[in-house]
Design brief:
Length: 197
């Protein structure tokens, strides 16, 4: 999936090839430290959730303990873009009463000639839904670091301002501030050959 490719690039510094192209089954776990300002490092726990309907009962349970999410669609696959609102509504329904911050990510921006979703309409959707928008490519590493850093900084500001607070029985923010970030991917929308992200 596109989220999986982003996570491999972000956490392992590489673009996953055919040997690492198996689709996400349920939830995959990743982790990495992010320096959001000099001397200020935050550990991210990253959950890559499968987009397929048959895994929904598994992935829904991860929303409640998350404070941030990348909603990832493929700019060369219009159907994946059309599913963004569905993912957003589902996540918001299962995360209540806690707040979750989302960043809309248009992936595969290196494939300009195959684009099916314009930047303008993606920016309009993100604005309508109260999200920021960024375009990425795991293949050439465009905006991969930036997407996670933007989301982490936004979460961190909400924590500092008290808009996201630690509550009993919630694992979204742990001691020392460790945000969980959940990813909804479009992998079920398009037939998979290999991870050409």
């Amino acid at each position: 999936s596109q989220a999986s490719c982003l996570l491999h690039r972000f956490t392992e510094g590489r673009f996953p090839g055919p040997l690492h192209s198996d689709p996400t089954v349920g939830v995959d776990f990743f982790s990495r430290l992010v320096e959001i300002e000099p001397g200020k490092r935050i550990k991210l726990q990253l959950w890559d959730t499968a987009g397929q309907e048959r895994f929904r009962s598994i992935t829904r349970s991860y929303y409640r303990n998350s404070v941030g999410g990348l909603l990832v669609f493929d700019i060369t696959n219009r159907r994946s873009f059309e599913h963004v609102k569905d993912w957003l509504e589902e996540a918001k329904m299962h995360v209540q009463p806690f707040q979750i911050v989302f960043l809309l990510v248009g992936h595969k921006c290196d494939l300009v000639s195959q684009r099916e979703v314009t930047r303008e309409e993606a920016e309009k959707l993100s604005s309508d839904c109260g999200m920021k928008y960024i375009e990425t490519s795991a293949k050439d590493a465009t905006n991969v670091e930036e997407s996670f850093t933007i989301l982490t900084r936004d979460i961190y500001e909400l924590v500092k301002n008290g808009e996201i607070s630690i509550q009993d029985g919630w694992e979204g923010v742990k001691s020392g501030f460790v945000p969980n970030v959940v990813h909804s991917s479009e992998e079920a929308v398009k037939p998979r050959r290999q991870c050409i992200c």
